[in-house]
Write a structure and sequence with these properties.
The chain is built from 13 helices and 19 strands. With about 400 residues, it is of the alpha/beta class.
Length: about 400
């Protein structure tokens, strides 16, 4: 077991038979977190509607925004955000706890750097083990002071203010630091000039940030060849925003259907344009490939655990351009391979992904499967265990993105 995990937090899953998989998707945290932050900096109420139950990542951002003095009224099918304008955030009088949400932490690092007094930002043991140098370095270049743990991670004590200036930003491991600087624009007194370095990853998520910012009045343009200029603006959010479902979560339904040789249908499938890279799942679901596949996850590395399992159970093949998956809640490449090996599934690590033979038969793990606090590892393992049976660490970690997950695969 690792760090502050409860040693009794073991999930036992009994084998079952599933003939039809009808998968319901939770709201997209990528869309909702971005809209929540911009709505809090607008000068009026914004209603954010969704289907399903928001995961804990979304609640983590909401809890932190509320500590800025922003009112959020939560209802079953919508949340109302009462914005206070670009200068409306209050200095938090307690630690901002991002829990497991790396997105929340990356997006809030620049926001709290706008305060002249120190603010402490923390999270759970998985966040404390993640190094967010691109985020902390960027605000230091704009004038902030950052103090961190001996392990060079959270908790962070950050003191501003920030000043207009130039940031040299490495975008080779994540696009979230770039997105966080775009969302910082409304609180700046002048422009931020961003010079990106490295081969950019998760480009669809970055494009989503620029798109949503543009809808609220930003003039910023995502240009990989030129400097990116973020001018201050006052967000003018629509009165009503509808959040699409999170297509990436359909990958677990695909694993479940494959291991049980069952039919598969997505109950609330989003428009492909809202898939943020995960729309590649539609091709797999519709075509039902039988030959080895070549999958490019440059813009959707969150799919790696589930699609690695899918390839091993199904057609086999290769996943490429996913090296940035090593910088998630866990090293998702090596830990996915380790997790699958517990089920007797052999997957090889490559420099930028994995490769595997297909049509392998899973078996019940002999030992408890450690998922290292990673919700996507847990959900992938749980789908396989629904066929074989098994015990997994980190019971409840699915709530980070999909609170209804247990009902979907038949355990409580």
């Amino acid at each position: 077991m690792n760090d502050d995990r409860d040693e009794d937090s073991i999930q036992t899953i009994q084998p079952t038979n599933i003939q039809d998989v009808n998968w319901f998707l939770a709201p997209s945290k990528s869309h909702m977190i971005r809209w929540m932050l911009l709505a809090s900096m607008s000068d009026k109420k914004t209603r954010i509607s969704f289907s399903g139950k928001p995961g804990e990542d979304i609640h983590s951002m909401a809890n932190c925004i509320e500590k800025f003095g922003i009112e959020i009224k939560k209802n079953e099918k919508y949340w109302d955000i009462f914005g206070k304008g670009t200068n409306g955030f209050c200095l938090p009088n307690e630690v901002l706890d991002c829990r497991n949400s790396g997105t929340t932490m990356r997006f809030l690092i620049p926001q709290i750097a706008c305060f002249s007094s120190p603010v402490i930002l923390d999270g759970d043991w998985t966040l404390r083990n993640r190094h967010l140098e691109s985020s902390t370095n960027s605000i230091e270049e704009l004038g902030a002071t950052v103090r961190m743990s001996e392990r060079k991670g959270a908790p962070y004590s950050i003191t501003g203010p920030l000043h207009p200036g130039t940031v040299v930003l490495d975008v080779s491991t994540s696009s979230q630091s770039l997105s966080s600087l775009v969302l910082l624009g409304p609180r700046m007194s002048g422009p931020i000039e961003i010079i990106t370095t490295g081969e950019s990853v998760s480009n669809r998520h970055a494009a989503l940030t620029f798109e949503i910012a543009k809808l609220t009045g930003s003039k910023a343009i995502l240009d990989k060849k030129e400097k990116i200029i973020i001018q201050p603006w006052t967000p003018k959010c629509p009165e009503h925003v509808i959040i699409p479902s999170d297509l990436s979560l359909a990958a677990f339904g695909l694993v479940l259907a494959t291991v049980h040789e069952a039919s598969f249908d997505i109950v609330n499938a989003p428009n492909p344009k809202d898939g943020i890279g995960a729309e590649i799942l539609y091709d797999i679901i519709e075509n039902k490939p039988t030959k080895e596949m070549q999958l490019d996850l440059l813009n959707c590395n969150d799919l790696l655990p589930a699609l690695s399992a899918y390839l091993a159970l199904g057609p086999g093949g290769r996943i490429r351009n996913a090296s940035h998956a090593r910088f998630k809640e866990s090293n998702r490449i090596s830990k996915t391979i380790e997790m699958l090996s517990h089920f007797g599934l052999h997957v090889e690590e490559c420099e930028d992904g994995i490769q595997t033979e297909g049509r392998q038969t899973p078996r019940m793990p002999e030992n408890i499967v450690d998922v290292y606090g990673d919700h996507r590892l847990f959900m992938t393992a749980a789908c396989i265990a629904s066929k074989t049976g098994g015990k997994l660490t980190d019971k409840g970690v699915w709530k980070i993105t999909d609170p209804l997950f247990p009902k979907q695969i038949g355990f409580v």
